[in-house]
Amino acid sequence: MLKVSDIMTREVFTLHPDMTLEEASGLFAEKHVSGAPVVSNAQVVGVLSQSDILEFVTRSPSTEPLGVDVRGSEEETAQRPLPTWREAEDTPPNFFAQPWTELGEESGAAQLLETEALETASGYEVPVLAAHTVDELMSRKLHAVQPTTDVDKAADEMRRTGIHRVLVMEGKELLGILSSLDVAKAVADHRVATRVYVFGRRAEHRGEEP
């Protein structure tokens, strides 16, 4: 019988609870995976999937206020140092905003551009994924199997609970992950035995010969 340890993914990257959702989503794209366990102090504390993030985005605004008005008064704004920039570096967002103050009060358009630029450059609003952490969204309910579990039993558990991956653990140690893709590959390679019952079980139930 094929065991979970025979087909599980052993090279597993993990997330940390303090990561932003933006960082986690970037890692999912980089690693070409749709979910990962969350580990803190060498212990698995949760699981986060790309579908969790997508669902969160669909019911959230695109940006969120930081909660603190970092713009300050006009006097504080005037005292802020001019942002520096060296050639070949990415230009700071507010690099071209500050010089507008030198045009004087005569230019209302200049003041409007300066105000808008400072609000954007200061981060008065931030993307929603950058404002929330993995810890806020991860599932704390862990679905785990042992490496010696039969693949068909693990696959049935995934089907029953409606999940696409289970952790493979021995005690508290994370050994790998078994995903629905791992199972599908095993089936395609004819590594998983398939039992087909046509009339046999029904005949036995009636007390007849199959």
SSE pattern, N- to C-terminal: HHEEHEHHEHEHEEHH
Percentage of residues in DSSP E strands: 15-25%
Largest sheet, in brief, is: 3 strands, mixed
Strand order of the largest sheet: 5-6-7
- Portion in helices: 25-40%
The low-confidence parts are: 68-73, 87-107, 109-124, 196-210
Count of DSSP-assigned helices: 9
Global Rg: 27 Å
Give the CA-based shape: elongated
Strand segment tally: 7
Q: Average the pLDDT over all residues and give the rounded result.
A: 75
Class by alpha and beta content: alpha+beta
- First-last Cα distance: 25 Å
Q: If you had to describe this structure to a student in words, what would you say it looks like?
A:
The chain is α+β, with helices and mostly antiparallel strands. It is 35% helix and 16% strand. It is built from nine helices and seven strands. The protein has helices spanning 4-7, 21-31, 50-58, 74-79, 108-121, 134-137, 151-161, 180-188, 200-205; strands at residues 35-40, 43-49, 63-65, 125-127, 144-145, 165-170, 173-179. It has a three-stranded mixed β-sheet.
